[in-house]
Specification:
2 strands, 1% strand, globular
């Protein structure tokens, strides 16, 4: 009997992260007696960090190496390795944000980090998938883990409500994805992307299947009009969870959507690019306009995240190497500035176990007089999200809009610039509150939480926001071979 030769080296980073999640569960079982005595410790967070950094090191070492596949189901190329670095980097910052944050309301730290790592595994699989069933498995692994993490704070009904809404609409989106895959299979008789590319035709099944898949991915990316779950889920979830899923889920879904569009050459870009362009326009516009009237910092950043999904869609609309590289670059930039902003929100929340996991803009009033360094860091993130030079957010938008103009989508680039001007109002409103308003007699909260782990996460985020745009660009990954299908 001849056994197939399995190239496990292709999925070694995923194996490392999965093994770390299992180790965390074993550690939780062995430490349960001490946990009942109130001795939680930070061992789970440290184990999670070690596993994530190990997987990141493996992915970094693989950059520029030969392309390999695992049984035709997963493809390890520079696009996959780049996505791994973005997702793993976001997860590292997420662990640092959660280090002191999660013990404030839960003793289930090991379970939290295990779920976080499983979500990371799903995202990494999603980025490497070149087969429809593998794609669906990765999508469901990350989704189920995030559903549980969203409702992880059992002290608040808002977290349970957010998790339920996210679960119901996420399951609805998974149904669209599954039906779309079924139609693509009916068209080609195969679930492998390579077969879709050679056997596919621009027929009814292919067009309808692609349309259903775009709807499903639209839910995952919080693209208008499939965005309705995002503000409630982002506001109700623990802030460390919100920060992670706002960044990492987008990165994985965008890469997976690019691979899927590339696998259907029979369905020309003329069919789907205008649809994505309209969705990008609607998403960035509604996200920015809705953010103008928000008082909650997390809800404001949720609508901001929707708007940024619209900006990122521009990279897919172009269909060019420059557009894809600008998209990957923007995802790195977005990880730094968005997770940093949510880190400051976590610092501004109340400390009491029963207090809501959110802070209103009023909590930032007079922050400079109380915590000048924290206020300065938040101002950097707000200005970068606006797109003010020379911060990384400016360069991210510059490369994205430049790729759109080069590909003939000038009107979409102009719409992105105008939306960036609109977004300046609500980002600068936070900055004005911190620097130009007097604090209340009894500030809310009286002393912002700024643990060492949170300070480290904010330091990494602000350095990335300040330096990434000045010292690198979209050329940090050469994706020309990926776009050419080689």
């Amino acid at each position: 009997m001849n056994f197939p030769s399995l190239a496990f080296v292709v999925i070694v980073p995923e194996i490392v992260v999965t093994a770390t999640a299992l180790i965390l569960l074993v550690v939780e079982m062995s430490s349960r007696p001490r946990r009942r005595l109130g001795q939680t410790g930070h061992a789970p967070a440290l184990i999670a960090l070690i596993g994530l950094l190990g997987a990141a090191g493996l992915s970094l070492a693989s950059l520029g190496g030969p392309i390999a596949e695992f049984q035709g189901m997963a493809r390890a190329d520079d696009l996959a390795h780049g996505l791994n670095l973005i997702v793993l980097g976001a997860a590292v910052l997420g662990v640092l944000l959660a280090w002191e944050y999660i013990p404030r309301f839960s003793s289930l730290s090991a379970e939290y980090y295990a779920l976080l790592l499983l979500a990371v595994v799903g995202m990494m699989i999603l980025g490497k998938a070149v087969e429809l069933i593998t794609l669906f498995v990765g999508l469901e692994i990350l989704s189920i883990a995030l559903y549980v993490l969203t409702g992880f704070d059992r002290h608040h009904s808002s977290a349970a409500e957010a998790a339920l809404k996210y679960f119901l609409l996420g399951a609805f989106a998974s149904g669209f994805v599954l039906y779309g895959m079924a139609l693509l299979y009916a068209e080609t008789g195969s679930t492998f992307y390579a077969d879709l590319a050679t056997r596919g035709r621009s027929g009814f099944f292919a067009l309808t299947g692609l349309g259903l898949l775009l709807v499903g991915f639209g839910f995952k990316l919080a693209v208008v009009p499939f965005h309705m779950w995002a503000p409630d889920a982002y506001q109700g979830a623990p802030t460390s969870v919100t920060a992670f899923m706002a960044v990492a889920t987008k990165a994985a879904a965008f890469v997976a959507l690019f691979r899927l569009l590339q696998a259907l050459p029979a369905v020309s870009a003329a069919s789907w690019a205008p649809v994505l362009a309209v969705l990008a326009l609607l998403t960035m516009t509604l996200g920015n306009v809705a953010a103008l009237r928000q008082r909650s910092l997390k809800r404001m950043l949720a609508y901001s995240s929707i708007a940024h999904a619209g900006y990122m869609l521009i990279g897919l609309v172009t269909g060019t190497t420059a557009g894809l590289q600008a998209l990957l670059y923007y995802l790195v930039v977005y990880a730094f500035m968005n997770m940093g902003a949510f880190g400051v929100v976590a610092a501004l929340e109340r400390h009491e176990p029963a207090a809501p996991r959110d802070a209103e803009i009023a909590a930032a009033e007079g922050l400079f007089s109380r915590k000048p360094l924290l206020a300065t860091v938040m101002a950097v993130f707000m200005l970068s999200l606006t797109g003010i030079p020379p911060l990384a957010g400016f360069f991210g938008k510059f490369y994205l809009f430049g790729a759109a103009v080069a590909a003939g989508w000038t009107w979409l680039a102009v719409a992105g610039v105008l939306n960036s001007v609109v977004s300046a109002y609500y980002y600068l409103r936070v900055t004005v509150a911190m620097f130009m308003k007097e604090p209340e007699p009894t500030p809310v909260p009286a002393q912002p939480l700024l643990a060492d782990s949170l300070a480290l996460a904010l330091t990494v985020a602000v350095l990335g926001t300040l330096l990434w745009g000045l010292f690198t660009g979209p050329w940090w990954l050469d994706l020309s071979a990926v776009v050419a299908g080689r």
